[in-house]
Amino acid sequence: MYFLWHTLLVLARVCRAIVEDKSKVNQLTIKMNSVAVVTDGSAVLGLGNIGAEAALPVMEGKAMLFKEFANIDAYPICLRTQNVDEIVATVKHIATGFGAVNLEDIGAPRCFEVERRLREQLDIPVMHDDQHGTAVVVLAAVKNALRIVEKQLNRVKIVVVGAGAAGTAIARILYSAGARNLVVCDKQGILEAKHFSILEEMQKWLLQKTNPRQLRGNLSAAIRKADVFIGVSGPGVLTRSLIRKMAKDSIVFALANPEPEISPQEALGHCRILATGRSDLPNQINNVLAFPGIFRGTLDARASDINEAMKLAAARAIAAGISPSELNEEYIVPSVFNKRVTRQVARAVAAAAHRTGVARRRSG
Fold this sequence. Notes:
The protein has 14 helices and 10 strands. It folds into 2 domains: 2-124, Rossmann fold, CATH 3.40.50.10380; 129-364, Rossmann fold. It is globular. Helix 5 (110-121) links the parallel strand 3 (100-103) and strand 4. The strands form 2 sheets. Strands 7-6-5-8-9-10 form a 6-stranded mixed beta sheet. The chain is α/β, with parallel strands linked by helices.
């Protein structure tokens, strides 16, 4: 009985301390080691719009990865709504108990607006991992692949197939890193304004910043003399004959899951470097290389945002996870089981948060 009374007394003191200074919630509760993993179940893996209940196992798996790789307490939150206003309002109301929000498996273009509005309205960082986690790992892999073939990012031609969440984020981070000859295709061919019924902010950016030579037509027209192909679309998009149209020492990232844009058996021997999302092949592009370290570094710095500089720092840290002596055509990204990468990414992200002024905890 005494123990219960004493515990309540201690808790009351903690509550009063937070009443007097709300910022103390970060030191006196679980908040700063907690991440909400939020989905509406509309774009789960390769399964599509399967709803909140069916999405729960995937969110539970994501929470386990957060704990295993970054010692972060993550909580799966599956919303039985796909209305943007309702998603934003719900996350705003529950944000009190979390240090950050990981949006997961929310379909495009809705995911863009949800992320934008939450970033504007919350005082904790929000990141849609399907966009930015994928993009960070792709950038790291592209950087290392280009080192092997001795080409420069600002001089190569890169074709991205898929103009959804992942494809848009990949194009944006590549542009931020210095790529300038980017061509984005969707299922109708090289991206044009007529492909969109309503031009969202992200589509406007793609139309303004990509396809500098104003190419028109299908993938065959886009891929001619391309140095890098990045597919985040679906199976059967890429063929051997299309790879043969690419530049010498071509790099192919066929990342669609569960079936890539071209089967590895078809692609091997026709490109210099091949990467997929598959765990049974070399060069697996997997978000687990990025998101645990990004969120660990963000929470450690108590950052108010996950900005572009932090994502670029994460990509550099992942790329640096392979030494020059280890780097080869079948080893352009570290193993997903290499927990050292998480620590390196976390340090780089926290340093970038301090450097860019979004950190709210003193370094060192």
